[in-house]
What does this fold into?
Amino acid sequence: MRGFGTTLAGIVGVLIVVVGVMVGLPTYNVYRKQMAGKAAYEQAVQDRRIRVLEAQAALDSAQLTAQAEVARARGTDEANRIMAQSLGGPENYLRWAYIDMLKETADQQDRQIIYIPTEAGMPILEAGQRGARPAGGN
It folds into this structure.
């Protein structure tokens, strides 16, 4: 009888395990899917936060760049105004800027002809002097 009781206890134990698996497995599957859904949701929230932070950084960068450009333009405007006043007006400042440009480009190899504005504002043209002169002609 002792063998029958052990066998019966083994069968009951196996049945309990089988019933436990049958009840527990679907519950575990639901739990696993629920946790996977929560993980996907948290990942989406984190991705959205990252995109928002990147957009905010781009906006901040654009605003600071714009502020720097405005400050640079104000500085250039002020420098031009001071220079024009010290030279006697905008016309004299433009003449000075033209002469300064001539100084800067004096060493360039490809510069051959310089047109200098006259008092009427028209340049002196060298149209007849560009070509090569004949060897025997005046």
